[in-house]
Amino acid sequence: MYSDDKQESAAPSIVNGKTTPVYERILELFEAEGVKALFGIPDPNFVHMFVAAEKRGWKVVTPHHELAAGMMAEAYARMNGTPALCIATLGPGIALTAGSMMNSLVENSPVIYLGGQRARITERRVRRGRIQFIQQEDLFKNSVKWSASIEYADQTDEIIRHALRVCQSGTPGPVYIEYPGHVILQELDVPPALPPKDYRLFEPGADANMVAKAAELIKNAACPILLVGHAVQCTRSGAKVKELAELMGCPVLQTSGGTAFIEGIEDRTFPYLFAKVADEIVAKSDVVIAIGTEIGEPVHYGRGYLWAEGNTDRKWVNIELDAEAIGQNRPIDVPLVGDLRTVVPQLTAALKDSPRAEHPDLKRWIKEDKERLHALTQQDFSTPSGRVHTGQWVIESTKAMPENAIHVRDGGCTVIFTWTYLQSKPRDVIWNQNFGCLGTGLPYAVGASIADGGKRPVLFTTSDSAFLYHIAELEVVQRFELPMVIVVAVDNAWGLEVGVYKRTFGHGNTTEPGVHWSKNVRFDHLAESLGCQGMYIEKGEDIGKAVTEAFASGKPTVIHVPIDPVINHGGNQNLDTPNYDRFRTWYAEGQQ
Questions:
Q1: Is the pTM of this model over 0.90?
Q2: Helix, strand, or coil here: 428?
């Protein structure tokens, strides 16, 4: 420890003949919630915890940047359906996680950030020039739902449990706990950790009368639909939503954040805004069951754009854990306040005796959307430069994605192309929807694969600029031998920002300062230097074969694909990015 951070020796009253150190008790409390991984870089505050975690069978994941640790933890939470634990040392370590705290807050991810701190005897001194020290808690309060400090060893249970309670209550989100040096090795005499249902409201159900009202609306509707957000994936509730969708005989619309397909109803699932079939479905809908979505800007608050057409007096049922969220973005006819893991089965039970026939247009919608996706593959993908068209990059990469793969996305233009050209129906998709934060992709891919135990293949599609943020984490991919293939679209520029220059000033009217970078970077070579396999593919038609071979090799692989920069940013007039005009409607505040 630091020389002036004196350890205080606790003297617990020993009842059962065995005491537990504070650091191990923290692990026990997380285990009760199903958490078995920690992400962070150890220092004197945490080395004991890291050793104990490894002995208890946890995955101990040490990245190369604390910001990446927080993003890994966020992806773990999404894939595991539980909170996640991110650890950082005092001072610069916890400061570097601040961006991921904000990210977790906006992305509604229940990550608990545990930060080291000097012993209180040191922290509270009125001194200058102290090493590796800042007053931390006040800096993070606005980036988390709740913050606290374990001042005394016997506060451990109540503080950790409240953190677990808060991060999963209402709208999920992060919390921050400070872990001062003076409590690290203190001992506790404590009973076994309680199960979650014994200390917090656990998966509450909705009011029975409201469930009955919702069921009546569905029974009497001409065209009920499900609008599904990313909380369905994060709570691992796909099978429950599938049962409801089949009872309703209805189509499923995905929000742009909820693009994971539910096994068994992939064909009847369509992306809101980025498929013509979805436009018709919205217009015809007369009852909308919103599940796991904030009904936010990307779906026009359920009021504007597509919702302003057709059955504009449609009824809305909102399944929402946070009572304060009900009615914020649009009026709700039937609020079902509770955990969707409980409420969806409640609604299913209410409809069990009166299942609906499939909507008469459902088969046509499925057929037309398949034709749309196929037609995209028949496009002329030649480019003036001879480099790969971004649309072809998406098509060939995702056609080769194994059926059970986890899909992680990152980038600007490449993600916009993905909304249109995606050829697969992945059951788990991790990307940064709400915060729009670049560089999350590689840490997300690591955290998702760790949560999965490295069993399923991971396809990570990204752009070069986004990939460079945390490229050092390729070493983590190699260290854990994660089954990951990374396909990098390389235009040697901040492609979306190039388009912004052209849209703002016109083609050729500026030098586009700051958005073009070296054309000599080779991601395949960088991958090899970090222990992974590298491939360089220049022809679009060869991408799929390369992805298949990379997965078959069993080696973490980075595939460098040079793409046409002009196509990528939408042409010299910035008019040709697919569905870009629709994407821009997300930012039409004041018009919705």
A1: yes
A2: strand
